[in-house]
């Protein structure tokens, strides 16, 4: 057991019970030497995604390095922030290497979801973004869904090559790789790190049972994702704790919905219609009249309208307005990177506006659900 044993890295008392608390280490790791907590393990071996900020330049160098190898590229994206977590220009940088697109966090979709539909949707979105992939796989690294298929697909497309795993931060790359290590790695083999040209950042080579290896790379921070702009406390609120419970609002024109002080949805003009909000329930929605919205925000931001709380409001860029016209007969989502999306299935069309912190990506796409 972990009783009385301290981490050789940071000195914290080890425990096996709660992975979210300090000192957590899986029981299996107790046979490794030196015995360290999971946090130290991840810092040591993974450049701890949340702690490392890889800028665009270094990230592109990294991808170019991947392009100079003969490998299989696994790009992990987050289904809850699909547009925001896509790596633009990926195929250009990784050259002729095949790309497998692993779409994580499918546990956030409603239980009744038709996964084939989602795969087709992802394929169309990827194609539209100019990303040619050999395969799309859905999974949940956290809930262990679709993992067998991930392994199958990797085996199928690897042809003996190394696998480079790339992704933006917070997409679940560490969770997925930890699962690969737990289930498939050769725990006796050394994890080795190697530097890639022109930077001091480490790539982590993880040997698997079958003699192949997987190479983990640092994640890229995209400032166009709301999840990268908020603090840790609000980040937990932005990410749904379980399957998203969509909220339907029947709105008349000239009505506004606030999402805390994080974003605002204006229904400016159109027939009375319903809008379905796919946003974490920890972010409180507040309805008001459009004409009242500016004053309400000024009076109640950080209080009635939270998260964030008042003290954290200054960290967030000011809200900026995106005008959106929904044509007649549309079935689309308006996505706000990191916050979620609003499904608009509109016979009559609508004139909308989204107010989001400056820099946050707002996009209209074919509806996901
Ligand atoms: P990384 O920055 O890409 O390495 O991402 P992490 O593995 O650290 O995960 C980022 C956050 O997403 C953490 O809060 C994870 O618990 C969460 N997460 C990872 N995988 C999943 C998943 O499959 N489903 C859900 N709902 N959350 C996930």
TrEMBL record:
Domain (CP-type G) ranges: 60-223
Family annotation (PROSITE patterns): G_CP
Molecular function via GO: GTP binding
Pfam families named in the record: MMR_HSR1, YqeH-like_C
InterPro entries named in the record: G_CP_dom, GTP-bd, GTP-bd_ribosome_bgen_YqeH, Mito_lipid_metab_GTPase, NOA1/YqeH-like_C
Segments crossing the lipid bilayer: none
Identification of the protein by name: CP-type G domain-containing protein
Provenance organism: Paenibacillus solanacearum
Gene this chain is encoded by: yqeH
């Amino acid at each position: 057991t972990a009783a009385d044993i301290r981490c050789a890295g940071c000195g914290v008392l080890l425990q096996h019970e709660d992975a979210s608390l300090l000192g957590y280490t899986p029981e299996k790791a107790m046979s490794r030497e030196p015995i360290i907590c999971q946090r130290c393990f991840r810092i040591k071996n993974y450049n701890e995604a949340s702690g490392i900020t890889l800028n665009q330049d270094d990230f592109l160098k990294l991808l170019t390095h991947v392009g100079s190898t003969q490998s299989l590229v696994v790009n992990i994206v987050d289904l809850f922030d699909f547009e925001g977590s896509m790596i633009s220009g990926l195929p250009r940088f990784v050259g002729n290497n095949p790309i497998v697109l692993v779409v994580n966090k499918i546990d956030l979709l409603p239980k009744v979801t038709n996964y084939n539909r989602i795969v087709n949707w992802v394929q169309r979105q990827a194609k539209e973004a100019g990303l040619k992939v050999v395969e799309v796989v859905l999974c949940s690294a956290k809930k262990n869904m679709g993992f067998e298929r991930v392994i199958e697909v990797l085996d199928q497309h690897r042809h003996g090559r190394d696998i480079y795993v790339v992704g933006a931060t917070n997409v679940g790359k560490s969770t997925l790789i930890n699962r690969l290590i737990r289930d498939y790695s050769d725990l006796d083999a050394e994890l080795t790190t190697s530097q890639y040209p022109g930077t001091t950042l480490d790539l982590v080579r993880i040997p698997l049972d079958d003699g192949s290896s997987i190479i983990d790379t640092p994640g890229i921070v995209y400032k166009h994702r709301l999840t990268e702009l908020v603090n840790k406390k609000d980040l937990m609120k932005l990410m749904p704790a379980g399957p998203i419970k969509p909220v339907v609002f029947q709105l008349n024109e000239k009505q506004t919905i606030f999402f805390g002080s994080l974003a605002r949805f204006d229904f400016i003009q159109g027939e009375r219609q319903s809008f379905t909000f796919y946003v974490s329930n920890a972010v409180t929605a507040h309805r008001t009249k459009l004409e009242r919205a500016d004053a309400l925000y000024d009076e109640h931001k950080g209080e009635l309208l939270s998260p964030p709380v008042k003290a954290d409001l200054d960290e967030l860029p000011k809200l900026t307005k995106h005008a959106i016209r929904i044509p007649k007969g549309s079935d689309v989502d308006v996505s706000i990177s990191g916050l979620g999306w609003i499904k608009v299935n509109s016979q009559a069309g609508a004139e909308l506006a989204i107010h989001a912190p400056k820099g946050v990506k707002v996009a209209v796409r074919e509806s996901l659900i």
